[in-house]
Amino acid sequence: MSSPHPRGAAMDISTLDRLTPADLHRCFLEAFSDYVVPAQPSLGQLAFMLRRRGWAPELSAGVWLDNLLVGFWLCATSDIDGETEGYCIAAGVVPAARRRGALTGMAAQVESLLSARGIRRQRLEVIDGNLRAQQAYAALGFSPLRQLDCYQIQTPIAAAGDWPVTVHAGYRTQDWPPAAGLAYPPAVPNRRESLLRAEPPPRWLAVRRDGRLLGSLLMSPDGEVAELTVAPDCRRRGIASRLLHAGQMLANGGRLSFNNVDNRDLALLSLLLKHQAGYRLSQWEMLKSAAADDGIRPGR
Q1: Region 151-282: CATH code
Q2: Per residue in 64-115, pLDDT tens?
Q3: Within 10 Å of residue 134's Cβ, how many Cβ atoms?
Q4: What pLDDT, in 10s, does the model give residues 144-176?
Q5: 13: which residues sit within 8 A by CB, 6+ positions away?
Q6: If one looks up domain 11-119 in CATH, what number appears?
């Protein structure tokens, strides 16, 4: 079958500043139809993801062939370690338009847009095992920073200890425990700025005693756990398991998912294995720094 886009057809690369999620949806589905883990969100799911991750159309790029959008690099910005970075929410090219330099062209466009705003670093995630994508990003100057693993718990969790859990129907986000208390920095989709944009807002489950917050869990209504924290002097007393039990009672089908767990977080990994969490996949968080930032050396 001949390609709908002749090899000689000229590509047009431009920003996405006038596009909406509805304009992207067809291209997004086609670009990820043959991905290692095919991503086929509904239009509503795509719009939700872009809103939560802070999509900035004016800093994003697309590629057109014959006036048809065939590729995209969806960019957001995030403040990490006191510096604003560019964050690639997703990048893809439809199969028929690949191997023509579309990704390279869009990456250059986005880098230019970010540079004009003084933004010198970029970050993204790529699924481990997707060698083609990893090599493409490496060729663009991205280096592996850390491995992020994804797990799912479906086995019923037994309640542990006499720890009453409060499920907050409404709350002030400033009452959440400080993000600095997390063992490892969350990936961009689970950073506080992303959670504050989530719709509906995360459920907040808390364990308190004598007015003190001992443990906290933030999760989406569909069971995605964004944060789980326990006060250092209260660990190994069943608080985390009690929070997970309560969360499982609220989650659809009793399924809890943990996306982007830093694989150095041995305490959380031990807890997940204790509750028979099933491993799903791993991603690599990758970082690209401008030449002037050569002193930064990413590592796991």
Answers
A1: 3.40.630.30
A2: 999 999 999 999 999 998 899 999 999 999 999 999 999 999 999 999 999 9
A3: 17
A4: 999 999 999 999 998 878 899 999 988 889 999
A5: 61, 62, 63, 64, 102, 105, 106, 109
A6: 3.40.630.30
